[in-house]
User: Fold this.
Amino acid sequence: MKKKIRVGPAGWSYKDWNGIVYPLKAGSKFDSLAYLASFFDTIEINSSFYGPPAPTTSKSWARRVANNPAFKFTAKLYQVFTHARGKGTREDEDVFRAGIDPLAEAGRLGALLLQFPWSFKNTETDRDYLTSLLDRFKNYPLVVELRHSSWNEPPVYQSFERRGVGFCNIDQPLFSRSIKPSARATSPVGYVRLHGRNYQTWFSESAGSADRYNYLYSVEELQPWVDKIAKVAASAEETFVVTNNHFRGKGVANALEIKAQLQGKKVPGPASLVTEYPRLKETVVPSLLKPKRILPCPSIDPE
Assistant:
């Protein structure tokens, strides 16, 4: 495909990835971010949802993917703006910008994702809030993720197109008012996000993120999404595909399978992951690559 499609997982710092995504006992010099950047052209930064990264941290992230010129991060907006609506202060904004700007200045920020919860609905109040937030962060390439079906209206998409704001096409457990899978591109940035289909724990307040995202898509379940990704990419200048089903590296496995289907050939991937999920032998060439840290990194790294 002529237009760029970047596929990758959400996040890279998970303890349950050791020995599955990452080599077991890889050593203190092993760089997990550089390792993933050798297989993927994007990773979604999810730690920025819980708090703004320090500028030194984001500068480090940009350095650590230097070996992949095509690599771009996407980052989630701090949750105080999306989940604690109206409580985000100017100071919160300034601190968040200071943490994200080094990635943008390095040419490594592909999109800023505004992820809203299911409770955010297409009401006058929430529409006004969304408009104000889009104005607030309009100097970034913005993508909006909406989960409630009330937003599935032509005026919403037309508004995004006028503003040059991307729409996030998602796969999630479908309940009565959940927004359904789609293949829309409303800006030069296309975005697809796969959360898994764990119906048992999706809305459970007691379930942790590991339980909620414990789902491995079958190859048959991925194929319709490969078709949707191609449709999005036909309308966008660049498209980001993020697998958020991170439990035990399942999102990494599915991201590799999506890459292989899009490219029509086997793609390189972690040898340990192929051992964990043997079906990957059909689409992945096992790699024993062990990138090491060659640049100093800050001691506090939320990813």
